[in-house]
Specification:
Number of strands: 22
Structural class: alpha+beta
Radius of gyration: 32 Å
Mean pLDDT: 87
Strand content: 15-25%
Length: 733
């Protein structure tokens, strides 16, 4: 099975390497003190004023020292540091501490330490140059070629091609590198640190230069590679490396053609090209920043401060409107970068074009033609669900509650529906520990596409199954398929005509609460002195037609029971003739509950543990705790402590809320229960009390993280995620 690494293979990499680009950190540091007093103007006091507008990505972290001090000086952190297990860990650092203290006797080292602290105190930024987009895309394509090669090698084994071992996972990346020689180059990246002590920076730069020169002395490979270059009127320390420094001549190329039979790759030509590639690392000062740069040269450094600036870009208007807030992070990614690193329609078209090379040629010709047609059809069917790449902007700032932020995306997400309010906000039980709601677009047409591909997948599985099961079992298999086919068709029709219309609303929620308690959740559990909360996990759905939903569930239930009997008739020794008992139905406030308590009765669970489905006029819930389902059916005003979720009537695509202290409190109850059992078994063990005391202190400290809330909505053509992280320090004793 032979193939080549054509450009059509490149989309594969986007399935495997999308997370390789970090568009910026949102600086989720603990803010446990009061709000900052100083306000900064973006044009005057951040690197945005000189970063070119056409960069691929930019991110920065601000107020690092301010946030660090707030955390370090908080009562919560002091409580954590006082714990014996933390103190013991700190004692193990005594020896390194002594070495550090010796090292700090040198005044130059003191200056270096202070400079490093300074560099991390006000602003740290990262710039990815536009020229790097293609470099990153090539890296993804190479990764994709390797993954594709692994799949093809696996297919060779499946088809029994053991005589000629394949090396596609090595071959395809090498072929792509060979074909794309001109695209191979170092990425252009700048890392910057704001400082207040330029003289200290220059002194440490000169010190580093001397250290490097001493280390390189006598090494012919590094001769004349460390130089000084004038950029923006400042002297940058520059180290120039190239591919010629790699000992290509020592590589044994004789073995590669043997390992990759019948393939032609100009490895010598490729290596000659790689020898010419350069990597330039530069370190120096620009305005009030220390810059560290990598790239094929320093052209991107020289571009700083010239031409249109990123701060003036249209897409940064939301940031400019918040310029006077105490910002702690900013991140921007261009639409071009998103286009290069996200799966898009062009990628699917290229995948269709490459299908002829992907599918083995040594299989049945009709089967091969069918597979090729299905690949082309699948690519077309996937296109409507793909997001449209666009610019992205995110920023966060300090508030008296913690950290608040916005993330803007100007691409299009076809599946997210932000056109109406989320009515399920009134069906989460008022104040659960966690909920996450979103509304998705979809309907009968989407289900038809899904059902079509499930059917096609079954056909391929059926072919493979028939080819591998013993001949004497084919008849039994055919009888089972024949008997079950009408039931599958019935359920498919029910899904299309009843279930999909019943859930047309599109809202889906996951809810976790810790309100339901028991002193003994199952019969064998030792009784507790206090009620213990159970984590209730529920799936909640928006309902457009409850009658159709009940009809669909009833059809599924009866079809499953009918399938069991039909299989029993064919295979009585393997499948018993049992039937699933119908649920117990009861009327409750807001709808009906269909109980399947018989599933838990053998274990002797508390009566609250009752697997059930609850259906109301516009909501349905699935949970293991009956009281939770009854709460969810009722329309209850939302009572969470977040300004983002006060207006439940606004149009939203999603909403998320986490009450972290509520989860900690629930865990604390079980911790007390565990301590009680341990003491009953070992009444004289004082270590149990010590461990419990530490656990209590740790839970107190971590409960200072109040949780997170977020909402997603449309604003002037952008999808906006508005979020907050809540922090509150421990009260004074």
């Amino acid at each position: 099975m032979s193939t080549t690494a054509t450009p059509q293979h490149r989309p594969i990499g986007k399935w495997f390497l999308r997370t390789m680009i970090c568009l910026g950190s949102l600086a989720v540091g603990l803010w446990l003190a009061g709000p900052a007093a100083a306000q900064s103007q973006l044009h005057e006091k951040t690197s945005l004023r000189f970063v070119p507008a056409d960069v691929a990505a930019y991110s920065c972290i601000l107020r690092g020292r301010e946030m660090y001090d707030a955390v370090a000086q908080s009562r919560a952190v002091k409580l954590l540091l006082s714990q014996p297990f933390i103190q013991q860990a700190l004692q193990e650092l005594e020896e390194p501490k002594e070495e550090y203290e010796k090292w700090m006797k040198d005044s130059a080292n003191v200056q270096l330490r202070d400079l490093l602290v300074e560099m991390l105190s006000e602003e740290v930024f990262l710039v990815i140059d536009r020229d790097t987009i293609d470099v990153l895309a090539l890296m993804q394509e190479i990764q994709g070629a390797q993954q594709l090669g692994q799949m093809l090698d696996a297919m060779s084994i499946v088809t029994g091609d053991f005589a000629t071992p394949r090396m596609n996972q090595m071959l395809l990346p090498l072929q792509m590198l060979d074909e794309e020689r001109d695209r191979i180059r170092a990425p252009r990246i700048i890392l910057g640190y704001k400082i207040q002590s330029p003289d200290a920076a220059e002194a440490q730069l000169a010190r580093l230069e001397k250290l490097l020169k001493d280390a390189m002395a006598g090494e012919e490979t590094f001769k004349d590679r460390l130089t000084r270059e004038q950029i923006h009127g400042k002297s940058f320390l520059t180290l120039t490396l190239d591919g010629g420094m790699i000992p290509w001549d020592e590589m044994d190329l004789e073995e590669l053609p043997e390992a990759l039979p019948d393939e032609e790759i100009d490895l010598e030509g490729l290596f000659e090209q790689l020898k010419k590639k350069t990597l330039v690392v530069s370190l120096g000062r620009y305005q009030e920043y220390v810059l560290l740069s990598v790239g094929p040269n320093n052209d991107h450094l020289k571009q700083l401060g010239s031409g249109p600036k990123l701060i003036d870009a249209l897409k940064l208007e939301p940031l400019r409107q918040n310029a006077n807030r105490p910002l702690v992070s900013i991140a921007y990614g261009s639409a071009e970068l998103a286009q290069a690193t996200q799966l898009n329609e062009q990628d699917l078209d290229e995948l269709k074009a490459s299908a002829d090379e992907l599918v083995p040629r040594d299989i049945d010709e009709k089967l091969r033609e069918r597979i090729l047609a299905d690949i082309a059809e699948l690519a077309d069917d996937l296109k409507p669900s793909l997001p449209t790449p666009g610019d992205a902007l995110a920023f966060s700032f300090l508030t008296d509650r913690g950290i608040e932020g916005y993330a803007y995306g100007w691409g299009e997400t076809p599946t997210l529906d932000t056109s109406q309010p989320l009515s399920l906000l009134k069906h989460v039980g008022g104040d659960p520990a966690i909920f996450a709601i979103n509304r998705v677009k979809g309907g009968t047409s989407d289900y038809a596409t899904f059902a079509k591909w499930v059917g096609k997948l079954y056909e391929y599985i059926d072919m493979a199954f028939r080819a591998n099961i013993p001949a004497d079992e084919i008849e039994t298999y055919d009888r089972v398929v024949t008997q079950l086919a009408p039931l599958v068709q019935r359920m498919n029709k029910t899904t299309k005509e009843d279930l999909i219309p019943a859930l047309k609303d599109g809202q889906v929620a996951m809810v976790i609460d810790v309100k339901d308690t028991s002193k003994a959740w199952f019969a064998m559990m030792p009784k507790s002195d206090e009620p213990l909360p159970a984590p209730g996990v529920a799936l909640v759905l928006g309902v457009s037609d409850p009658a159709k939903l009940k009809k669909a569930v009833g059809t599924y239930f009866s079809s499953i029971n009918e399938a069991i009997l039909k299989i029993n008739e064919i295979m009585p020794d393997d499948v018993p003739a049992f039937q699933l008992p119908p649920p117990t139905t009861s009327e409750v406030d807001g709808g009906e509950v269909f109980s399947y308590r018989y599933l838990t009765m053998p274990v002797g669970f508390d009566p609250k543990v009752d697997p059930n489905a609850a259906i109301g006029k516009d909501v349905a819930a699935l949970s293991l705790l009956r009281p939770q389902s009854e709460r969810l059916l009722k329309e209850t005003p939302l009572r969470v402590q977040s300004p983002l979720l006060q207006d439940t009537g606004r149009k939203l695509g999603s909403a998320v809320h986490v009450d972290f202290p509520a989860l900690v409190d629930a865990f604390a109850a079980w911790t007390r229960y565990g301590q009680k059992l341990a003491k009953e078994e070992n009444p004289d063990d004082e270590e149990i009390d010590a461990i419990y005391a530490q656990a209590v202190d740790v839970m107190r400290a971590i409960s200072c993280f109040g949780g997170i809330s977020s909402v997603t909505y449309d604003e002037d053509g952008a999808t906006v995620n508005h979020y907050e992280l809540r922090f509150q320090d421990l009260p004074q004793d």
